[in-house]
Amino acid sequence: MLTKGSRYIPFLTAGLLLAGQMALADEWIAEGQLGFGARYSDNPINRPDDSNPQSTAGTTGSASVEFERQVDNKSYSLRPRVTRNWHPDRELKDAEHTNLYLNGGAGISYERSNWNVTFRASDRGILTSEQEDSADFLRVDDTRQELSVSPSATWHMTQKDRLTVATSFSDTDFDNEFNTRFDFKSSSISVFYNRIINARHSIGITALVNQYRSEALNNPTDPVMLENDTDGKSISVNYAYQWSETTRLTLSVGEQSSDLSSSSVNQGAGIEIFNNNSTFESTQYNLAITNETEQGTWNFGAARSVQPSSTGTPAEKWQLSGNYEHSITPSLTGHIKVRGYRQEATGSLLSAVRGETKFIRMDLELSWRVSQRTSLVWEYTFRRRNPESTDFEPGLATSATSNELAFGARYKFGI
What we know:
Structural class: mainly beta
Distance between the termini: 37 Å
CATH class: Mainly Beta
Largest sheet: 18 strands, antiparallel, barrel
Number of helices: 2
Low-confidence stretches: 1-6, 133-137
Helix content: under 10%
Number of domains: 1
CATH architecture: Beta Barrel
CATH topology: Maltoporin, Chain A
């Protein structure tokens, strides 16, 4: 039986077929990577720590290709990718996922303006993809399909003044309809003005308006239908400082306001059970520091933001992240990534049934290049999710920890 999210599969399939044809064109540049390895995890499906989670060994595989084309003032890119995990244990077969990704974009540049459009399509398991769904309060596995399109236009009014108008549209579906995750659509439009003060400093301002619209959460055996809608707006001041030739700092601070509406209707009786309206306001910020040298790169970020979530309403998130990559020797590279966040549901109704969630993830990687195209890779991943228990879903709000070790090989190729 095809799920509602399966409608994205033709887009991904078409992209992969188109990618193969592009490789035959002289004007396209293509680079790809294949990966395969063995993996051990002490908690592969993120079970609560107090439920004696089952450990297992398995295998993983991946394939990706990056296509790029530049013709005069036009540019194109397409990046299909697929990952897959296997578990020999029959009890974990439901945790196997084939994760599909397709990203791409196109742009055209003129003397005083640039026009671009990017898109993302994916069909992935929540607990098996490398992308953590930060605005997701549940530890229950599921399959998430997402399609988003983002057009933008930039005008260079003077040598120091720039104006950008950007829009974004996205549609997110979950296969499992009855675990209190809402399918939702989101859209936004933003206007960004930036002024270069000198070679080191620039300042700007961003105004944004957005909408989140959840689809009805409706169990066929239950006449009660739930919906959540949000209208939001924000304004922020942006500052960028080129600290040195290798280090750059950016800072954004602003205010946002969201009007939330939650309703429940008994379809059988035609009775509205409740209709709750509330307003959520907060200060947002985003600090980022990046450093790039020949020996390695590092970056640090701290942010407070509001974004769509599987509750059908925005989630407020505080996040810290760090990334460091260093060439230990000409053939050996080390990489460490750390990210932690704390998030809360917004609105008077959802905040009562969704507790606070804390999450931390750390990835360590050693890559040894044994030839020009082949590398051996060792990886360790630590995850911990610590949700606050609520009366609404006490069985789902339980701390879960996992440790994962992997060893494999990667092969890069050109087409």
